[in-house]
Amino acid sequence: MAADQGSLPRCAWAGTDPLYIAYHDLEWGVPMRDSHRLFELLCLEGAQAGLSWITILRRRDGYREAFDEFDPQRIAAYGDADRTRLLADARIIRNRAKVDAFIGNARAFLDIGGFSALVWSFVGGSPVQNRWRTVEAVPAVTEQSITMSRDLRRLGFRFVGPTICYAFMQSAGLVNDHVVDCFRYAELRGEDR
Predict the structure, then answer these.
(1) pLDDT for 193 beyond 60
(2) What is the DSSP secondary structure assignment for residue 114, as one 8-state letter?
(3) Residue from 45, 120, 132, 166 carrying the catalytic annotation
(4) Residue 143 catalytic?
(5) Which CATH number does the domain housing residue 145 bear?
(6) Domain membership flag for residue 159
(7) Roughly how many angstroms between the first and final C-alpha of the chain, as a whole number?
(8) Lowest CB count within 10 Å: 48, 60, 80, 89, which one?
(9) Is residue 122 included in any domain, yes or no?
């Protein structure tokens, strides 16, 4: 389903990197309901803090391998030996606070039970269809992301500030923030999986 990379109008942020273009064309903004995939995405969005998303995309496979395919049960059971192993793993961003957040987030995820239902509750269960004309018009934070951040923190999640939560909402398709001239905007209106 990959589009011809040069022929279609896209959101300006997709740039020219083939990995970024593929992410834009095939993943970003596609409504995601699978709790396991949502957990992975929330962790990776947190890993991005202070970095660019392309940095995380380039390391995503390494993260999946290092963190047992984001199996929350396994991650929640990590101990000191796992932390040491992860902080020595060049395939990921070796930041102790972020590694600890993944472990803590797995534990919080397991305590919740219905992660997908929780996440989607912040937008009333259906994707918000925005109508941005330029990427500059797209907000970095919304009332929903502020509420999500507050509630996730209360539940024990870390690296879930309002900006990270909004990036997560965009990536997971809780909001359609493709600009209206982007070919994906119309394709994603009403798409929900």
Answers:
(1) no
(2) -
(3) 45
(4) no
(5) 1.10.340.30
(6) yes
(7) 16
(8) 80
(9) yes
- Tell which residue, 23, 106, 101, has the closest CA to residue 60: 23
Residue 84 lies in a domain: yes
User: Catalytic one among 27, 53, 187, 191?
Assistant: 53
For residue 191, is pLDDT > 80?
no
Residue 191 is encoded by which pair of tokens?
């798409």
The H helix count followed by the E strand count for the chain is 10, 2
Task: Let me know: does 170 contact 11? Beta carbons within 8 Å.
Answer: no
> What are 17-53's pLDDT values in tens digits?
999 999 999 999 999 999 999 999 999 999 999 999 9
- What's the domain count of the chain? 1
Q: Domain for residue 193, yes or no?
A: no
Out of 23, 27, 187, 191, pick the active-site residue: 23
Reply yes or no on whether 45 is catalytic. Answer: yes
Do residues 19 and 146 touch, judged by C-beta distance below 8 A? no
pLDDT digits 0-9 by tens, 45-62: 999 999 999 999 999 999
* 185 among known catalytic residues: no
Domain that holds residue 138: 33-188
The count of other CB atoms within 10 Å of the CB of residue 138 is 18
